[in-house]
Structure formats: structure tokens, C-alpha cells
Specification:
alpha/beta, 5-stranded parallel sheet, 5 helices, Rossmann-like_a/b/a_fold
Length: 148
Amino acid sequence: MYKRILVATDGSSLSEQAVATAIDLALLAQAELVSVNVAHLQPYGYFEGSMVLNQREIEASQEQAQQAAQRLVDAVRSAAIARGVRSAQAIVMKSNQVAEAIIATAKNQECDLIVMASHGRRSLARLLMGSETLHVLTHSHIPVLVLR
């Protein structure tokens, strides 16, 4: 059936349900699990959508985002191992193109299924740019399981 399952997580409650389902699938298929979170790159200046920040503030903000993302995927890996998944990885990607980063990670990790929630935390930007889940569905050559 499936050998490597990728689960995309953003820490939302719906995303946590996708994580639980991915762990169940990994156990059922005796597959490996790869959890991924895409840490957004912060804008650096006014013209990129932010106030002008000095380099130290930019670096501190990026480090906080990286650490928060790492905690999310580490928690997924720990939960999977605790439940008996034979192998679990935790990956953080840095990108503002969430869907492309998820697809690239699935391809690079040789996953044969992507599991993700239908809606995450994205507010107005999600409405303007479209659903990341829809983008993954329409552009991935790997099967995608979407949970609502």
C-alpha cells in the first residue's frame, strides 16, 4: 500500500486531526511518516509588506518562527513513535510558497501519499491567494488525502 506518508501540519485543530489520521494510516500500512511544517519567511522591509526592521530583529523573528515550526513537527514525530510508527521524520521548510514546499518535500522524501487538512491558519492572505490545499491537490503527482 503506502511506504512513506507525508503529513503537513500548521498546528491548527484541523491539522491535528490530519496528523492523527496520518499516524493511523502509517500504523495500518506499516509505513514511515514524514511530518512537515512550512515556516514562512518574514518580509524584510516596507515594500515587501512589513515595517522596516533592523537585521537583528529580522534574525530574531526568523529564529522564533523556525523554533515554533520545529516544535510542531517534533511533536508529530514523538506522537508517531509513541504510537508505534516504525520510523518518523520531522522536517521544517522555509518558504512563502507553502504548497510548493509541501510538494517538493514529498517528492524529495519519496513519499507516496500526502495527508493534509482542508483549511489551515492563513486569514485574508488565503482568500486572496487561494487555498494551499487546493494548490497541492491540483499540482501534486503524488496522491493527496484531504481531511475536513
